[in-house]
Specification:
Number of domains: 1
Helix content: 10-25%
Oligomer: single chain
Radius of gyration: 14 Å
Number of strands: 11
Strand content: over 45%
Structural class: alpha/beta
Shape: globular
Order of helices and strands: EEEHEEHEEEEEE
């Protein structure tokens, strides 16, 4: 089984998780059958389809991996020339358990390890 390490740009949100742009995460997921985020493994193709449905302008994804994979959208706002992130009015989120949607014959695992951005 082949492992590919992808490092999309992300911003650490305290102890909560990582804020990653949906387009970068989808591009990273296209390269494999299984996505490994932290110690959790899920099916990459189905995760990519769910992320495609959560793409909105001026919003990014907050990803946590505490026991299960939690993904929710978060709004990007400019405050006094700085970029800040706040929960949007309409929050979309989902949770996945470990080993959800794993394919029977997986050949490539994509390991997602975000690179710290500012």
């Amino acid at each position: 089984m082949k492992r590919i390490i992808e490092r999309p740009w992300g911003r650490k949100r305290g102890r909560d998780g990582w804020i990653i742009q949906p387009t970068e995460l989808r591009n990273a997921l296209k390269q494999g059958d299984i996505a490994e985020i932290g110690k959790l493994q899920v099916g990459a193709k189905q995760l990519s389809e769910l992320i495609k449905l959560m793409c909105f302008p001026d919003q990014e994804l907050l990803i946590r991996d505490n026991g299960r994979l939690e993904v929710e959208n978060i709004a990007r706002v400019l405050v006094k020339g700085r970029t800040e992130f706040r929960k949007p009015r309409l929050v979309h989120s989902f949770r996945l358990d470990d080993k959800a949607w794993l394919p029977k014959k997986a050949t490539v695992t994509v390991v997602i390890k975000p690179r710290k951005f500012a």
